[in-house]
Structure formats: C-alpha cells, structure tokens
Amino acid sequence: GQQVKQSSPSLTVQEGGISILNCDYENDMFDYFAWYKKYPDNSPTLLISVRSNVDKREDGRLTVFLNKSGKHFSLHITASQPEDTAVYLCAAGQGTGSKLSFGKGAKLTVSP
Amino acid sequence: EAAVTQSPRSKVAVTGGKVTLSCHQTNNHDYMYWYRQDTGHGLRLIHYSYVADSTEKGDIPDGYKASRPSQENFSLILELASLSQTAVYFCASSDDREEVFFGKGTRLTVV
C-alpha cells in the first residue's frame, strides 16, 4: 500500500494568505521528511526537509511541522504568492541515501 | 549546478516492442533512481542503484530492467512494452545528503 498519503489533491488560497499542505505516513522507521515542488512539464525540486529529531524547521516563508506520534507532517507557506502555484509532493525516507516514498501530490493555486 | 539529463523527452512505442530510456548525471552522485508518475499515483520507485554495475529493485520493478554501466549513466529497459507502462518516467540522482535531483522526465506512450 501507499506509505505516504496526501489526502487533499488540491487547495486554493488567496494571495497573501497561508497555504497548508498535509501528509500522513505509515512507516514508523521513516526518519527523513521532505517537500518537493513541481511545475508542469518540469522536474520536482526540493523545497525543504527535516529529520525526525526535530519537530519544526523554518526557511523563509516555509515551515515544516513534524508530528511523529501522529505520523503526520505539514508544509506551511506564509504570504502565499501566485508564483507558489504548483504541485507539491511530500516524501519520506529512512536512513542514509534517498530511496524516498512520495505522496500523490497536491495542486496549490494561489489566486491574486 | 546539479544536472540530470534524460533522453528521449518523449516517445511513442508499440506494444510488445523494446524501449530504452536513458539518464545521464553530471553531479558525481553515487545514487541513481528511476521513478514513474501516473495520474493519481504520485512518484513510484521502479529501480535504483548505489554504485556502478549494480542495480536494486524498487517498489514496482515488474516489467522493467535497469542498467548502470557507469556512475554517470543509468538506463531503464522495457523488454516488452505494454499499454499499462504508459506514464511519465523520472530519473534522479543523489548523494548521501538526501536531496534528490530529478531530470525533466520522459513521457512514454505505448500504443
């Protein structure tokens, strides 16, 4: 079965608002969690990642929250902008190397 | 800048035919991966490799073979292409610092 799940396939947010994307995982052994951004006909690129020894990581407008007991992590984008419109993929992995399991992706649309 | 180049970028193949997708990276990374993306499934790992001349099965290896003749090159081979293998295929590379760098993808249509 799918080890990483994104339950909401799409989200629309007004410009300037907060975008919240969610991801659930099944494997207790996952210790690495990441968010990738993908534009149409382009490569996924890493946005932000976190190891399981922290609950939160911030990078500019991006924050990842990790809830290990709930097997859940989320991406918060503050001051959302139209250029944030893209598909966001959550991913999780175990140990070194990057044999990641990905969610199905969620389409974020930021409307002006 | 890290670079992963896939060829071809798109291909139409006949059912039962042989298809080879090629990937070349200039990142000096040890790890390379092949993923496929289907609508409603996200990215799923087909094969991966940690070192030249060695490949490992991923989550959905059936119907696919992989070849890693050198650190820079990683191929995905469909010996007998089937309609169900119509998808977008992504090659990727990484080192042990976890960030994965993806190619732009190959759109394969099997008819």
Please sum up the structure shown.
Chain A is mainly beta and 112 residues long.
Structure report:
The complex is a heterodimer of chains A (112) and B (111). Chain A is mainly beta and 112 residues long. Chain A contains no helices and 11 strands. With 111 residues, chain B is mostly beta strands. Chain B has strands at 4-7, 10-13, 19-25, 31-38, 42-51, 54-57, 65-67, 73-78, 87-94, 100-102, 106-110. In chain B, the strands form 2 sheets. In chain B, strands 2, 4, 5, 6, 9, 10 and 11 form a 7-stranded mixed sheet that branches. Chain B has a 4-stranded antiparallel sheet with strand order 1-3-8-7, with no helix packed on it. Chain B is globular. At the A-B interface, strand 5 and strand 10 of A face strand 4, strand 5, strand 9 and strand 10 of B.
Question: In angstroms, what separates the terminal alpha carbons of chain A?
Answer: 38 Å
Spatial extent as radius of gyration of chain A: 13 Å
Question: What radius of gyration of chain B results from the CA coordinates?
Answer: 13 Å
Structural class of the secondary structure composition of chain B? mainly beta
Spell the H/E element sequence of chain A.
EEEEEEEEEEE
Number of strands of chain A: 11
Assess the beta-strand content of chain B as a share of residues: over 45%
Oligomer: heterodimer
| Biggest pleated sheet of chain B | 7 strands, mixed
What is the string of SSEs of chain B from the N terminus onward?
EEEEEEEEEEE
Largest sheet of chain A: 6 strands, mixed
